[in-house]
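Holo prediction — 6-phosphogluconic acid.
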Amino acid sequence: MPAAADVHVFADLECLTRAAAQRFVEDAHAVIAARGRFIVALAGGVTPRPLYEHLARPDVTGQLDWSNVHVFWSDERCVPPDDDRSNYRMARNAWLDHIVIPEANVHRLRGEMEPHAAAAAYDDELRAFFGVARSAADMSATFDLVLLGLGEDGHTASLFPHAHALTEQDRWVCAEYVARVAMWRLTLTPAVINRARDVLFLVAGARKAARVKDVLEGPLAPDTLPAQAIRPGDGRLSWFLDAAAGGRLQDR
Ligand code: 6PG
């Protein structure tokens, strides 16, 4: 059975974006008040861009002290940071270049490096940030929020069908060549994502509707539907869908 999730279907992407921005700011306020910092891993692709642009609006950005926010990425394409395909570049252009956030709080995956070296470097950076030695087997990296998208093939982050990273239990970051997109990718592993306190999928568009139904209502098959590998242990799992992406779900 797929992981229990709270599923919200919104009229359109604009409504979804506003709700996601409100969730982000409210979560960040609460976590910063409780623990002093908010640690988020961003999704790439197209869908989250309106959210990042919304978070850059003056009436929104003033609601948070961004010096208490640390930004990581759930995945990255193995391209330079100024490449049009870079998830880092997209978030910088849409949001991070428009807010006052210390450079030290922006932790990008180095897509310009040799992929395995980039994965190891990010693994080290995460362990240093969360205070866990490389030798430690425990997965005590705990993001406060991980944002994810969904591909038409059921992938999420850069966890594609049959990826080795889907069963990785020791490394926190993996590099894999993805034939269907003809490029190397870097990705957090499900084991790390599943330690998050909050995981939020943002999915929009009719072309995603069939896969959303498969992931949420179909049989459990994470090797072919990697989004089903996202099953936070104690964390909250939410799906924000627009009406088009949620159109095939039962009773929503
Ligand atoms: C990436 C993303 C990827 C994305 C989905 C959906 O690097 O491309 O991390 O997992 O979230 O492919 O992408 P869209 O939002 O562009 O449809």
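READOUT: The chain has a mean pLDDT of 95.
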